[in-house]
Amino acid sequence: QKEVEQNSGPLSVPEGAIASLNCTYSDRGSQSFFWYRQYSGKSPELIMFIYSNGDKEDGRFTAQLNKASQYVSLLIRDSQPSDSATYLCAGGNLGGSQGNLIFGKGTKLSVKP
Amino acid sequence: SQTIHQWPATLVQPVGSPLSLECTVEGTSNPNLYWYRQAAGRGLQLLFYSVGIGQISSEVPQNLSASRPQDRQFILSSKKLLLSDSGFYLCAWNPPTSTDTQYFGPGTRLTVL
After folding, report:
1. Mean pLDDT for back-to-back runs of 10 residues, chain A (113 residues)
2. pLDDT tens digits for B24-50?
3. Which of A16, A38, B42, B99 could in theory staple to A95 by disulfide, Cβ–Cβ 3.0 to 4.6 A?
4. Is the CB of residue A65 less than 8 Å away from at least one CB of chain B?
């Protein structure tokens, strides 16, 4: 059974702090990993993807991947109240005839002003 | 630019009634298309995906079916809804050659009473 595990939270951080979201996955065949943000009642929106070990930075967001430990994380620097949402981690392989992603249940983040 | 549409946005149906949800993508050709369901307290569950017209792969056996009558149209159907079919139904797409993106439509919230 391929699984992606996330702490459901809620994770509460003060405005301006760093929020750290974590995720583990079971399928060693997964090549790509994604972080989505989902506001209440809305559909997920893609924040970042990562497929190489190490860090990948995009603005206030940094994704980290450690394939040996089967671990993915997302850091949000200078957290804002508008970052309050549920963050979904997903892993898998897209493209071709068998591509699909496995999603975690999400971590709810609350940024307090 | 590419856009993805879903309708209806919300739907309330009685148990045992039929279902038809539609998803269309604009601005691209031969997209990979996906149907997900997000039930309360659960993660995103992949239901079906399609890599081309008439090509449907089912991930979860249930009373739902999917069809792809046109290149950019994906339909989710049921002959008789169950209470357990309630949830947020999301259509997603990615370019067939892309391994690093998957975009979601706005979703359909289905309540079965």
Report:
1. 87 97 93 94 94 95 96 97 96 72 94 96
2. 999 988 999 999 999 987 889 999 999
3. B99
4. no
- Choose among B92, B102, B86, B28: nearest CA to B66: B92
Q: Which of B42, B99, B106 sits opposite A32 (nearest CB)?
A: B99
Mean pLDDT value across residues B63-90: 95
Q: How many CB pairs under 8 A join A and B?
A: 66
How far is the alpha carbon of B96 from chain A, nearest alpha carbon, in Å?
5
What pLDDT, on the 0 to 100 scale, is given for residue A1? 77
Render chain B in DSSP notation, one character per residue.
--EEEEE-SEEEE-TT--EEEEEEEES-SS-EEEEEEE-TTS-EEEEEEEEETTEEEESS-SSEEEEEEETTEEEEEESS--GGG-EEEEEEEE-TT-SS--EE---EEEEE-
CB contact under 8 A, A95 and B44: no
Of A34, A105, A106, the CB nearest to B102: A34
Interval B95-105 mean pLDDT:
84
